[in-house]
Amino acid sequence: MLKDKDILGLREMPAEEIDEILDVGMSMKKLLKQNIKKLPHLQGKSVTTLFYENSTRTRCSFELAAKYMGAHVVNISADSSSVKKGETLVDTGKTLDAMKNDIIVIRHPMGGAPALLAKTVKAHVVNAGDGMNEHPSQALLDMLTMRENFGSIEGLKVAILGDISHSRVAKSNLFGLKKLGAEVTMYAPRTLIPTGIERMGAKICRSREEAVEGADVVMGLRIQLERQHAGNFPSLGEYSKFYGVNEALMKYAKPNALVMHPGPVNRGVELTSGLIDGETSRIEEQVLSGIAVRMSMLFLLTKEEI
Ligand code: CP
Fold first, then answer.
1. Please, are residues 63 and 262 in contact by the beta-carbon 8 Å criterion?
2. Radius of gyration of the chain (CA)
3. Exposure winner among 15, 121, 256, 272, fewest CB in 10 A?
4. What is the pLDDT of residues 43-67, one digit of tens each?
């Protein structure tokens, strides 16, 4: 059982709760692999996805997760809602509460927006990515994919390369992986490494080879051009050449180390096309893990109320 009303991030989530979400997520994934998509866990519940930023994977995945468990689902995107007429986040939340929504899944460009919403609504709030802060369901689906492949997270070495500064995925993964006993190495241009990340448990490496040496998992992160106000590296071509993940770099990792990426991928920039489509890639597997782990999150949030 989860102790909080909401799922806002992994920084504060106890390791036991992360484990519980992964345990239930593994069971959900087994059902999905058998093409079982009609479960009763959320019957009579309503789920609203409230997205102030673009998304393919996360929004669709939460919607399918809720529908597969029998919930009523409504999707709101800021572009086509009363937000455009000036309605505040808190007022939007109160409106959704008045409609008896049980769960609000929110993505917002401002870090902390889901926490503000959570304080002001009765509904459970799930953070689907807030600015550069956290993206807990992405990290949980990444960990589910790792656990499925290796049996356990403890003792794994996970190398994360890319735009760490702007990445909520990197932060949530760091919090979750460290809690479950993994080692996390990171590498990026200095301009894309946030101050203080080492205090959060990451090992910042001086070369990409050092970061990937002996890794079980190599995760590329998207270059988030939409959040960069100034050039943090000279060009995408140079980024790819000096900081990207390619076949030669993967030779430093363990044999058959997994290649992962949260998506969307800039093909040929963060990862080569050969790696994205190769045998050790788990990028499509991550997508299926996403539905499973989100089913687990929605179920565990409301379990006691059903
Ligand atoms: N990984 C991820 O959050 O993808 P979307 O932006 O497509 O949701």
1. no
2. 19
3. 256
4. 999 999 999 999 999 999 999 999 9
